Amino acid sequence: MMRNRVFASLEMAILALVPIAILGQAPKPAPKAASKATPKIWTGPKTPWGDPDLQGTWTSDDYIGVPMQRPTQVGTREAPTDEEIAQRQAQLQKQAETDSQEFVAENAKAAVNPPGHWGERARRPPRQTSLIVDPPDGRMPALTPEAQQRQAELQKVRQGNPGGPEDRSLYDRCITRGVTGSIFPVIYGNGTEIVQSPGFVTILTEMIHEARIVPLDGRPHAGKDIRTYMGDPRGHWEGATLVVETTNFTNKTGIGLNGGGVTHTEALKLVERFTRLDASTIKYEVTIDDPQTYTRPWTVSFPITQEPGYRNFEYACHEGNYALHNILSAARADEANKK
Amino acid sequence: MFRALAVLILSLAANSAFGQAAQAQRIPRLPNGKPNFTGLWQSMTTANWDIQDHIAQPGPFFQLGAVGAIPGGQGIVEGGEIPYRPEALAKKRENKANWWKLDPEVKCYMPGVPRATYMPYPLQIVQGTNNIAIAYEYATSNRVVNMGKPTEAPTDTWMGWSNGRWEADTLVVDVTGMNDQTWFDRAGNFHSEMLHVVERYSFRNPDVINYEATIEDPMVFTRPWKIGLPLYRRLDKNAQLTEFKCVEFAEELLYGDLRRQPKK
């Protein structure tokens, strides 16, 4: 018990140190690598029918661990300092060594966490201090009063023992992570494969085997009663950029990592922009607009990269979902014990 | 007179043959000259009920009456018979007798190949310049056919590992690396993890694909066998896949006994 407490306080100390290391630097102008100019005229690879060629498998791995919201102390500073970058580089180096050395570290919480090498890792330090790039403070805009209430209700449901599957997240249930949750960087499953044909772009994400078929022919959205988790995407080209506008959502997914966070409403509209910057980089940008949930539209952006040997695999989430079964049976056992 | 008629008939026949040839030329093609299968397609068979010939039957739940009955239909197996090994045939019969308790489709598990092709849901093909994506409406399952240098399946999966190549105007997809958890239909036809499927997609006309598959599995069958069926282009206005995420429809079945208050 004592030992655990020592460890706990050590962890607290480390946690307390990290923000200091990140935030301790005076906001000095850092290299603005993240804001490479968007090319107006496409000079990169094209498909035989003349569209910019975005095909391949891309990953958001490099932005694993970048917080969605910028710590308030960082203010409007978008880029990490040189020291923060060097620190992250060292951390990645150390992680790579650990991953290659051991199957499961002796002190790992193996009952809870998979071995380290199951995870995906950044290959280079990120160039942003937050995933949110607009508003300029990198913070999610204030929630509407209605959304605050929604969030409080959701938290209440999530806190207690689940009464049934519906009380757990759509991700726990292997149903979906939603559009943004499928591409935002997390511990693994960060791959997006793009396949193009005349008139269509397909965006396939590894986890949980989503395939978004984006028509480019200007057809109208599906009828208003067709509401789906992944929404109804329509695409067009603006110069080098693929613009995908998605509507017809349910009110059941969120915009956070893995589709978590406050649930949005059916009014949600997403505008995504995929811009190929060079052979191995696409700038991904998504603007989230749901006036019934957020007091203003906001934008998340990060690069996705092509990496040697990286590809999507089948993620049979539901087929192997022992976790949900165990969560529910544990909840029932817990309740039986308390009787 | 008769001779003139014969000439007329012959020339009509020739015209019609010419017409067919012209139509074959008009199939959609990509700039590289390959047939372009991009589009929304669907089978019109009852093969998902049974890939062999079958008559109409009552369904397992009498409450559903005619709505829950099983339609009859002609099978898609070439020659009609599936060459099961004797012990495998016994297992197939057992599967059929316990259909809805055992069929992975009921649990919303990914359907595997070839079953995904002839389920009663559409599928969307997007034919890229390097790879071909096939997205199935059922369970939002999908696969990407590698059209580059063939690669080996790194592990067994539900939807398998697909390597494609062209034989003239036919797309040939070699599928390996499938697990033994999927079935061919709701009649309990099954396979082992030794399953090897070779699919052939070719245009019959611009709106119909001839789909053929050779099934090989020495653990279960005494010889390779074939299925074949047409896939029709969905011509409905603005036709598209409609999300069918069936996990939540199977949750009561899979986890209902673990509810705090089980549903009555």
Number of strands of chain B: 9
Distance between the termini of chain B: 82 Å
As laid out across the biggest beta sheet of chain B, the strand order is: 4-3-2-1-9-8-7-6-5
Provide the gyration radius of chain B in Å: 21 Å
Considering DSSP H and I runs of 4 or more, what fraction of the residues of chain A is helical?
10-25%
Largest interface: A-B, 50 and 43 residues
Instruction: Tell me the name of the CATH class of chain B.
Output: Mainly Beta
The largest pleated sheet of chain A is described as: 6 strands, antiparallel
Strand content of chain A: 15-25%
Encode the helix/strand succession of chain B as letters: HEHHEEEEEEEEH
Number of discrete helical segments of chain A:
5
Please describe what this structure looks like.
The complex is a heterodimer of chains A (339) and B (264). Mean pLDDT of chain A is 87; it is low at 1-36. In chain A, the strands form 2 sheets. A 6-stranded antiparallel beta sheet of chain A has the order 2-10-9-8-7-6, with no helix packed on it. In chain A, strands 1-3-4-5 form a 4-stranded antiparallel beta sheet, with no helix packed on it. Chain A is globular and about 70 Å long. Chain A has a domain at 55-67 and 138-339. Chain A is of the alpha+beta class and 339 residues long. In chain A, β6 (232-238) and β7 form a beta hairpin. Chain A has 5 helices and 10 strands, in the order αβαβααββββββββα. In chain A, 23% of the residues lie in helices and 20% in strands. Chain B is of the alpha+beta class and 264 residues long. Chain B has a single domain, classed as Beta Barrel (Lipocalin). Chain B has a 9-stranded antiparallel beta sheet with strand order 4-3-2-1-9-8-7-6-5, with no helix packed on it. In chain B, β7 (196-205) and β8 form a beta hairpin. Chain B is globular. The N and C termini of chain B lie far apart (82 Å). Mean pLDDT of chain B is 93; it is low at 5-19. At the A-B interface, β3, β4, β5 and α5 of A face β2, β3 and α4 of B.
